[in-house]
């Protein structure tokens, strides 16, 4: 991925609409609507408290895993890719908000800080601490 600066708002709290707006402003994130939007909303509601796994999100939406995956496929989405995009947007927003890297890793369902750091480097080309310093200046 590139190291270009994204235009992101600094906010005291993160709302569903802010994440959707950020997803839609980020060229790597497709506009979400339909079942994709519902899945994103479920993932955001789950962050920090519950798993963002496909079976849990499907249950929140009163769908079987197969039905959720089928409906997402009909919209040109895949659950895993959608979850990655949500995690990426949430990670960026949480870093800008000043939340600790350990807390972000936990909120987004990563098994450890280093797992989150590796994923974040794949998404942005920078480790989270460097990203925060770069965007804070």
Helix content: 55-70%
- Rounded to the nearest angstrom, the radius of gyration is 15 Å
| Element-by-element helix/strand order | HHHHHHHH
Mean pLDDT: 80
How many alpha or pi helices? 8
Distance N terminus to C terminus?
A: 21 Å
Low-confidence stretches: 1-14
Largest sheet: none
Query: Which of globular, elongated, flat, extended, rod-shaped describes the shape?
Result: elongated
Secondary structural class: mainly alpha
E-strand count: 0
Strand content: under 5%
What do you see in this structure?
This protein is mainly α. It contains eight helices and no strands. It has helices spanning 16-25, 34-46, 54-60, 65-74, 79-97, 101-107, 113-124, 128-136. Helix 2 (34-46) packs across helix 5 and helix 6 packs across helix 7. The radius of gyration is 15 Å and the shape is elongated. The two termini are 21 Å apart. Residues 1-14 have low confidence and may be disordered.
